[in-house]
Amino acid sequence: MARNIGSVSYQGLRTVRYRGSTSMNPKRIGFLGFEGVAASELVRAADVLAAATLDGGYGSRISCYHVCTIGFASECFRAESGIAFWPDSTLETVSALDTIVIPGGDGLRRSLVCDRIADWVLARVSETRRVAAIGAGIFGVAPTGLLDGREVTTHWRYANDVARCFSNLRVDPRRHLVKDGAFYTSSGAGAAIDLSLALIEEDYGRHIASVVAQEFVSAPINGNGQHKLPNPLVFDSQPADRFAELIPWIMRNLHEDLSVNTLARKACMSPSHFNRAFKSVFGSAPAEFVENLRINEAKRRLAVPKRTLEIIAASVGFSDAQTFRRAFERRLGSKPRSYLKNFNASSMATSANGEAALPQTGRIPGAQEALAIPTRD
Question: Would 175 disulfide with which of 23, 52, 153, 330, CB 3.0-4.6 Å?
Fold first, then answer.
């Protein structure tokens, strides 16, 4: 970890690999920084993501994310509070990112800042899985036109300005977090933690998100001013303790036989009891859960040059390429080769009327399917 007195840097987060033939690279999350950024929004969200780890066995931990800060230039930038941040990369030098996060801050009130952020996001969106804005961070995304027709939220203080300046957006400041397609918006610093927890849950499941939440979410206080014990989570039961070790094992053995019988033996449970316990914890059957992990990993491997579908299918545990194709299309709504072509596109697709459009890497829900993530008390 880089050390800077009076400043903050996320530089130096390690890339940790699983032992064995299957490796996992942490997803790269880029936080955009600029003069006048809201430090609380950047740091809260980044800290939560950086805390997400998996049990690698023998006391080791596996980082789920590699968090990096991105500046307009290589020099430090200062937040509203005066805290100095040293960026890991610049807009021009940053490598491929899984997710872009744009915090808010008074700096976004300057048109030059907003315009530069919008231009950069528009240039990167075709190769980025998702884009998130915290509070006033929406002013950096809205000018791109990518949010037109979508449901969004922001801090109530900015809601009228957003609605006036970007009339094509469906703004609802009453909602804490909103996901519409590949875009995530949150109401401000208070929702920064919840935004990151939602991303973790989407990527690694409810159990991992709940473990991280216990580090950042305070227990409620009763009428006597005492902390109440949180309601027991299903993850804290004995089966879930076993699953906490099982899931990392699954992820580094996706190419192996992962039938219910195999997983039940690994968890030292009978197949019938294992199946019921697994569904109670993760909300899906083991086979569905495993297939989802395999498809997600296959999506990442499709980006590796000179890998055939047959090689990718076998590397993540599918019996043959045809079975892989069917599962991929069933879950993502597009064929692997179509996904690969869109992923490797050097520029964003442009529709006939000149509006920017995301590449079709699977079916992207319309605004009517936008998901509002409930507020955590």
Answer: 153
Percent of the chain with pLDDT over 70: 76
Bridging pattern class, strands 151-152 and 170-171: parallel
Q: How far is CA 91 from CA 40, 51, 105, 254, in A?
A: 22, 25, 18, 35
Q: Taking CA 345 as the corner, what is the angle to CA 343 and CA 346, rounded to the nearest 5 degrees?
A: 125
SS (H, E, C) 285-321: CHHHHHHHHHHHHHHHHCCCCCCCHHHHHHHCCCCCH
| Rg (the chain; Cα; Å) | 21
Output phi, psi for 294, to 5 deg.
-65, -40
Rounded to two decimals, what is the model's pTM? 0.58
With bands split at pLDDT 50, 70 and 90, how would you rate the model's confidence at 56?
low
User: CA-CA distances (angstroms) from residue 373 to 56, 152, 175?
Assistant: 30, 12, 8
Would you say 147 and 356 are in contact if contact means Cβ atoms under 8 Å apart?
no
pLDDT per position as a tens digit, 81-123: 999 999 999 999 999 999 999 999 999 989 999 999 999 999 9
What residues contact residue 1 under an 8 Å CB cut-off, 6+ apart? 9, 11, 12, 13
User: In the structure encoding, which two tokens stand for residue 106, read together?
Assistant: 């008074």
- φ/ψ of 56, rounded to 5, equals -90, 0
Say how far apart CA 79 and CA 71 lie, in whole Å.
12
Q: Which pair of tokens denotes residue 145?
A: 């036109």
Coil, strand, or helix at residue 84?
strand
Two tokens at 349? 């697709």
**Tokens, residue 78:** 């200062």
